[in-house]
């Protein structure tokens, strides 16, 4: 069955989506303010890479602390724009009957994954400053696996929900 998915979803964002979008932007702003506040105390060399144990193993000029906030802001903007364009998502088993539910579910998934990624990158930026001050920060071996489990778990839950929506309609 052919589905007209060429038009954007007409529903407005849910309150949860609006709040989480604002919270993720506030995290980025707080990170930038934090970096400005720490700038004078940062050494010339700061950690720019962490190994699997969460320990700094690569160092660069202190201007590199702005790289993560820049990437974070670009990701936030791109994902926020993509949330408004559910008609470009590749959703299997999309029908006229289930497209609104599928779009909303997929849009919510993207919103939550955005918050998770932003939180992780802001945390990594904070961690870099802590290491540059000689304070070991991080969760060690568990840091990256915890992030991946949370993010992939979120995606898995929403893909399961999309599958249920497809079977119910």
Automatic annotation (TrEMBL):
Would the keyword tRNA processing turn up in this protein's UniProt record?
A: no
What InterPro entries would the database entry show?
DUF1648
* UniProt cross-references to Pfam families, sorted A to Z: DUF1648 (PF07853)
Q: Which UniProt keywords apply?
A: Membrane, Transmembrane, Transmembrane helix
Which spans are transmembrane here? 19-37, 64-82, 108-126, 138-160
Q: Does the keyword Membrane apply?
A: yes
| Domain called DUF1648: residue spans | 26-73
Name assigned to this protein: DUF1648 domain-containing protein
What is the species of this protein?
A: Pseudobacillus wudalianchiensis
């Amino acid at each position: 069955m052919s589905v007209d998915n060429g038009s954007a979803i007409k529903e407005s964002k849910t309150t949860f989506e609006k709040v989480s979008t604002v919270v993720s932007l506030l995290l980025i702003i707080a990170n930038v303010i934090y970096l400005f506040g720490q700038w004078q105390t940062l050494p010339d060399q700061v950690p720019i890479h962490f190994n699997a144990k969460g320990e700094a193993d690569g160092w660069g000029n202190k201007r590199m602390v702005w790289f993560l906030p820049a990437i974070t802001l670009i990701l936030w903007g791109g994902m926020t724009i993509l949330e408004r364009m559910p008609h470009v998502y590749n959703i299997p088993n999309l029908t006229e009957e289930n497209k609104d539910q599928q779009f909303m579910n997929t849009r919510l998934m993207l919103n939550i994954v955005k918050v998770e990624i932003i939180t992780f990158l802001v945390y990594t930026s904070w961690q870099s400053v802590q290491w540059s001050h000689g304070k070991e920060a991080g969760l060690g071996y568990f840091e990256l696996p915890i992030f991946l489990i949370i993010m992939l778990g979120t995606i898995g839950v929403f893909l399961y929900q999309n599958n249920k929506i497809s079977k119910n309609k």
